[in-house]
Protein: cellulose 1,4-beta-cellobiosidase (non-reducing end)
Organism: uncultured symbiotic protist of Neotermes koshunensis
Amino acid sequence: MLAAALFTFACSVGVGTKTPENHPKLNWQNCASKGSCSQVSGEVTMDSNWRWTHDGNGKNCYDGNTWISSLCPDDKTCSDKCVLDGAEYQATYGIQSNGTALTLKFVTHGSYSTNIGSRLYLLKDKSTYYVFKLNNKEFTFSVDVSKLPCGLNGALYFVEMDADGGKAKYAGAKPGAEYGLGYCDAQCPSDLKFINGEANSEGWKPQSGDKNAGNGKYGSCCSEMDVWESNSQATALTPHVCKTTGQQRCSGKSECGGQDGQDRFAGLCDEDGCDFNNWRMGDKTFFGPGLIVDTKSPFVVVTQFYGSPVTEIRRKYVQNGKVIENSKSNIPGIDATAAISDHFCEQQKKAFGDTNDFKNKGGFAKLGQVFDRGMVLVLSLWDDHQVAMLWLDSTYPTNKDKSQPGVDRGPCPTSSGKPDDVESASADATVVYGNIKFGALDSTY
């Protein structure tokens, strides 16, 4: 009986052997000063949510958007019986790397399944995520969003994940960072199949609008720095902070928050964030096809985190050899600024009639603490089964007049972005991230 009890306590998610895990290379540069950059060897790994989960012999533990009850009657049994396997990055997920740039394809028809979107993390070595400390630094990358229409989001961002994917903290997280465990963000997502090294299968409810996803009773929360959320029509730069220190599993609305109403502000994290979307901030001539930052061609994105601890976030672009300063806000009641700060957030939330949950959860003081501990880089491409990405590129909320400050966020119609539509009409959509540089302010461009 004692042996059985110990075995139950020590149960963990296993590592499968059906598919070899060969991480795509993604090298980048660390810059001490302008013109003084050194190459860093890196690679990426696929998030565990996208991976094949089976019993070790090839029988699915998760199929479609449902856990198989015979293998997963509860979280601990499911964790003990199921493994995460390696990824066929190009054939199954449409991921291609040339060593310095990564191409993410939206829909990939594989031999056994159709894959939608992806989420990957930059690794320091085979089993450890690279941790970036952002205070008084800048982060730069090139991007091509020309093939991303309304409703898609090519997102490059940072989250306060554990560097080892939770392997040291949670006994069950055996696959660790090598197999993409440990994800968290400021939405406290509950669609994760594994949290804290355990399956999230108990109480799992398949999503009615998504044949691949569901939601468990737990979520996974941590602070998030959205450096880049974009398609060819709109872009947003958004910090989010949480009450947590690092990743924390949540349950219930008092911890996880919610999508709507006051529940959205009840949880551990600031789900709305404090965003700078050029269109939403009053400049409809700055970002898009044929505009100042012309999304028909690739360009470079420079994000600067001023102060140690950070007090301001600034943005620049480089296209065709020309440095382009970010557009300034043009909204009554908001200073004509191109940067995000506590003062900007206070003015913006008041002008837009929004709750300043960024301030309530700690604002830039909290963000500086997170930056000092360090964050993991995420590269992703996704569509939105909740609100069709209208919050990024259209009128949102849709029941408000778009003439109200903050409601008009982009040029896309409110009928756009429906997942069935974009997955059919834009299956070949791609985003390309490359030429990543990190270092001292004004050193990377």
Summary: The first strand starts at residue 14 and ends at 15. Residues 231 and 424 are 17 Å apart (CA to CA). Residues 2-440 form a domain with the 1,4-Beta-D-Glucan Cellobiohydrolase I; Chain A fold (CATH 2.70.100.10).
